[in-house]
Amino acid sequence: MLDAPVAPVDPFTTVIRRIGEPGTAAALRGAGPLVRADAPAGGPVWIVTDGVLARQALGDERLVKDPAFAPASWDRWAAGLEPTAAEQLSLTTLDGPAHAALRKAHAPLFSARRMQGSADRIAAIARELLADGPADLMADFTTRFPLTVICELLGVPADRVDQAVAACTRMGDYGPEEFAAVLAAFADLATAALENGGGAAVELRERVPEGTTDEQLHYLLFGLIFASQITTDAALGFLVARALGAPSVDPSNDLVRDVLRRHPPAPFTLWRFNRTEVELGGVVLPERAPVLVDIAGINAAGDDLTFGAGPHYCIGAQLALLELRAVADVLATDHPHARLAVPYADLRRVDRGMQGSRLAELPVLLRG
Predict the structure, then answer these.
(1) CB of 81 within 8 A of CB of 175?
(2) Which has more confidence, 311 or 176?
(3) Which of 32, 72, 213, 303 gives the lowest tally of CB atoms within 10 Å of its CB?
(4) C-alpha to C-alpha distances, 229 to 94, 141, 147, 340, nearest whole angstrom
(5) By three-state DSSP, how is residue 293 classified?
C-alpha cells in the first residue's frame, strides 16, 4: 500500500491575499490525489484532492460525520466540532437511516419549486437592503440579506433579524461559553418562530421524527439559520465583485455558478471520520482518521462540488442559488451604473482555512 504524500503547504492557516492570487488548492492537488497534512487540533488529516476519489469518499458509509468518531486526542473546541450525534440531533452529524429520516423532514421545505415560489419576495428583500447604497457591502449587507431571507421563511419575526446577525457574528469565537450563548440566542429565535406561526419552522416541527424534543428542534433551526448565512454571505461578496468589477466576465456563462465554482463558500467539506480502517486511493487510513475533501481544488480542476455530493448534498442549495441570483438581478436592473469604488485587483480576501474565504471589504458605488 502507498503512503499519502505530505501537503507542501499548510491549508489551515489564515492568510490575506488579493482577490486574484492563488491559494493552496493548486499546491495540494499537485502533490497527489490524497495528501496528508497536520490537523489544527493535532495529528494527521487526509485531504482528497481528486474529484473521482472525492465522490467515492462522500458516498462511502464507512466515512461518517459524527464527531464521536473524531481522534480521541482532539479537543472539541480546538477542532470546532459540533456536539456528537448522540448529544444533539443534527443534519450535519447524523448518517445512515437516521440522517435520511431527518433529511426527508427538511427536504420539502427547501425544494426547487418551494424556493422558486419565494423568488419575488427574496428579490424584494435584496432591493430593500440595497436601496440606501451602503459603502461597504461586506460590513453588513452580505450577512443581513441571507439572514433576513431565512428568518422570514422560517417565521422568525422581522424585528429579530438583528439578534440573528449578532448570534451568527459570535460564532467566530468558538468556545464553550460563546457556543452556549449563541445556542441560547438561537433557541430564543426558534421559540419566536414557532410561536409566531405561519412559517417553515412550524412545518418542520410537524415533519421531524416522532420523539424529537423542543431542544432538538431548536438546534435544527439553529443549523438552518447559521448554515444559510455562512454559505451565502461569503459567496455574495465574490459575486458582486465579479459582477461590478471583474475585467472579463463572459456573458454566456452562468455568473452565479461560475463564482461558486471559483470561490466555493466552503473550501473543504466538513470533517468526516473513518468508522473503521478504510483504503482510499491506495492508502490505508486507520480507524477514526479525519478526512476532508478539497472542494476548492477539485472545482478549479473543472469538477463542481460546491454543494457537496452523496447523502449529505447541501439541502439549502436551491435557496442559496436563488439568493445569489436575486442580488445579481437587482444590481443589474435597479443599479445599472453601480461599480466598485476600488480596482477589482486591489480587493483583498481573507482565506481562513476550513472557515472559508471572505472578502475583507467590498466598497461599492451603487449609483456609479
Answers:
(1) no
(2) 311
(3) 72
(4) 21, 11, 6, 23
(5) strand
Indicate the helix (H) or strand (E) that contains 240: helix 214-245
The residues pairing with 22 across neighbouring beta strands, listed in sequence order, are none
φ/ψ (deg, to 5) at 138: -75, -15
Characterize the bridge pairing of strands 283-285 and 272-274: unpaired
3-state DSSP call for residue 351? strand
Those residues with Cβ within 8 angstroms of residue 195's Cβ, 6 or more apart along the chain or in another chain: none
Q: How far apart are the first and last CA of the chain?
A: 60
CA distance 209 to 187: 19
Compute the CA torsion angle 159, 164, 169, 171 (nearest 10 deg).
160
Mean pLDDT of the chain: 93
* Tens digits of residue pLDDT in 177-219: 888 999 999 999 999 999 998 899 999 999 999 999 999 999 9
CA 284 to chain centre: 29
Strand partners, 348: 18
Cα–Cα distances in Å, from 48 out to 5, 223, 284?
A: 11, 26, 13
The pLDDT value given to residue 248: 62
DSSP secondary structure code for residue 270 in this structure = P
CATH number belonging to the domain at 14-365, selected among 1.10.630.10, 3.10.310.10, 1.10.10.10, 3.40.980.10: 1.10.630.10
Q: What's the CA gap between 55 and 256, in Å, rounded?
A: 23
Q: What's the chain's Rg over C-alpha atoms?
A: 20
Q: Are 146 and 192 in contact (CB under 8 A)?
A: no
Report the alpha-carbon distance of residue 313 to residue 304 in Å, rounded: 12
SS3 of residue 34 by DSSP: strand
- Grid coordinates of 90: 443534527
Domain ranges of the chain: 14-365
